[in-house]
């Protein structure tokens, strides 16, 4: 009996010790409270206070839909009726990312202008630069003055896609949106307090905040963001995982991959049926419920807003086809399998890429993209980051040839025309510290002399209310200068996913 009691106590002790070890996790097991490399405890001010928070889960930013990455055949899947031969088929892989559920709306862009006016009211040039061009609606031989006056400003069009926005303006909007979302993330996590009195350059900018050039008032901090000595709370670092990556324009490959929505026609790594347009396979209704295939009652219904033929933009009175004379609200029609609305028709959409006819063959197989301009922070003679600009942003410059002379993975700071086959890409262009968004001095100008294509030519995709069905295929591509705008081009934003491509992200709350 004593022996049984002894063994019982012994086993209880072993289980208890095992439980303690599991909880303490001395060498970095499940809970990772200690370093598996050195055995020292994380987040302990007594041994230096090295801070590490495990279990990161990606967060979906407001307005975004998760796009799980994968491989697909990018490029032409129908007859090239235009004879451009600029979308040759090629298999590529796109990493997981996020993309706006809809095109950016007029109300979204008005919110942006309101913020600019409130914060930069003393500099009218900033707001004027951001204004969409409402005169894009004018036509010498058409009466479109109602659109000029009403389309952007009137509440009746709030849910319609913004147009008259150039590629440059779309990029500026994405940068602004990144900062506003990261600011609210820090406020929601009680890292900083809300500051409604931001003015001029003293507004929240993510990079300026991380560089210590934005004076934010600390809050209590829901997470234990303590200083190394454990006595005071601190500001968030990028490694804390609280802030989100930048909103940006999607690359052409990301946009095309997302537009096809290849979920409803795949099985065990096989695409059973290619798509010309985004809407074959499983559909998702506007109320979110799923259904498979075509139902008889839905046969013949329009799936996108486009011009059905010469002079036919909306159908007959009493029997309209797509229900829109120009654009339609951004949640019109069925979304594709990823849950994205109007990736065909309504408005064309800017993507990030510089246009070259042979991009499909030139660019890399993983995350293909032409348009990289590699920048670094502008620093003084002591290596310190110089004061931010009037927008409240950290100043940047393009990397120089001297800085890249020992690199192997990339050798030019401005890669927009890198190996594009023209004579200018094979000559020494020298160094540059110019920002190519506003000054093209570091790029190749020779190609712009002999053709309409230059380093400012940007791709747009998707087709619009003005276009025939051919342009609604996600593989088709056209281009326009980045400082120009039209009444049938809008945009939507994307965001990179950090970490594992299979890490299921948390929904925005």
From TrEMBL:
Gene3D superfamilies: paralog of FGE (formylglycine-generating enzyme). Residues 62-362 form the Sulfatase-modifying factor enzyme-like domain. Keywords: Lipoprotein. One of its GO terms (molecular function) is formylglycine-generating oxidase activity. Pfam families: FGE-sulfatase (PF03781). Residues 412-434 are annotated as: Disordered. Residues 416-429 have a biased composition (Basic and acidic residues). The keyword Lipoprotein applies. This is Gliding motility-associated lipoprotein GldJ. It comes from Balneicella halophila.
């Amino acid at each position: 009996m004593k022996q049984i009691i002894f063994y019982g106590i012994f086993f209880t002790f072993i289980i208890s010790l095992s439980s303690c070890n599991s909880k303490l996790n001395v060498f970095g097991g499940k809970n990772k409270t200690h370093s598996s490399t050195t055995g020292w405890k994380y987040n302990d001010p007594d041994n230096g206070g090295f801070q590490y928070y495990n279990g990161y889960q990606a967060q979906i930013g407001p307005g975004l839909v998760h796009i799980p990455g994968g491989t697909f055949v990018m490029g032409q899947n129908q007859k090239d009726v235009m004879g451009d031969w600029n979308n040759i088929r090629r298999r590529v892989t796109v990493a997981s990312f996020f993309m706006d559920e809809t095109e950016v709306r007029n109300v979204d862009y008005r919110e942006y202008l309101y913020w600019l006016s409130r914060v930069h009211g003393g500099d009218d040039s900033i707001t004027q630069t951001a204004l969409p061009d409402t005169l894009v609606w004018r036509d010498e031989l058409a009466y479109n003055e109602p659109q000029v006056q009403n389309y952007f400003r009137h509440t009746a069009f709030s849910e319609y896609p913004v147009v008259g926005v150039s590629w440059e303006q779309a990029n500026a909007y994405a940068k602004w949106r990144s900062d506003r979302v990261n600011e609210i993330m820090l406020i929601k996590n009680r890292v900083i307090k809300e500051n409604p009195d931001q003015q001029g350059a003293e507004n929240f900018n993510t990079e300026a905040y991380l560089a210590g050039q934005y004076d934010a008032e600390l809050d209590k901090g829901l997470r234990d963001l303590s200083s190394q000595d454990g006595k005071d709370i601190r500001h968030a670092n990028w490694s804390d995982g609280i802030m989100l990556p930048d909103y940006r324009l999607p690359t052409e490959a990301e946009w095309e991959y997302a537009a096809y929505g290849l979920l409803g026609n795949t099985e065990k790594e096989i695409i059973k049926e290619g798509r010309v347009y985004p809407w074959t396979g499983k559909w998702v209704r506007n109320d979110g419920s799923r259904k498979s295939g075509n139902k008889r009652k839905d046969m013949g219904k329009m799936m996108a807003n486009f011009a059905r033929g010469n002079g036919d933009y909306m159908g007959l009175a009493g029997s309209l086809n797509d229900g829109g004379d120009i654009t339609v609200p951004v949640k019109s029609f069925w979304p594709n399998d990823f849950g994205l609305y109007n990736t065909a028709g309504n408005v064309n959409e800017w993507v990030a890429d510089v246009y070259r006819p042979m991009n499909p063959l030139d660019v890399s197989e993983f995350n293909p993209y032409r348009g990289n301009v590699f920048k670094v922070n502008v620093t003084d003679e002591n290596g310190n980051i110089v004061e931010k600009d009037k927008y409240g942003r950290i100043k940047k410059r393009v990397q120089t040839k001297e800085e890249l002379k020992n690199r192997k993975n990339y050798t030019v700071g401005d890669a927009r025309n890198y190996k594009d086959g023209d004579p200018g890409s094979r000559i020494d262009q020298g160094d540059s510290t110019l920002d190519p968004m506003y000054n093209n001095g570091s790029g190749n100008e020779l190609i712009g002399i002999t053709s309409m294509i230059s380093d400012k030519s940007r791709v747009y995709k998707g087709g619009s209310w003005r276009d025939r069905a051919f342009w609604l295929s996600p593989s088709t591509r056209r281009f326009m200068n980045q400082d120009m705008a039209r009444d049938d081009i809008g945009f939507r934003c994307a965001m990179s996913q950090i970490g594992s491509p299979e890490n299921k992200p948390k929904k925005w709350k």
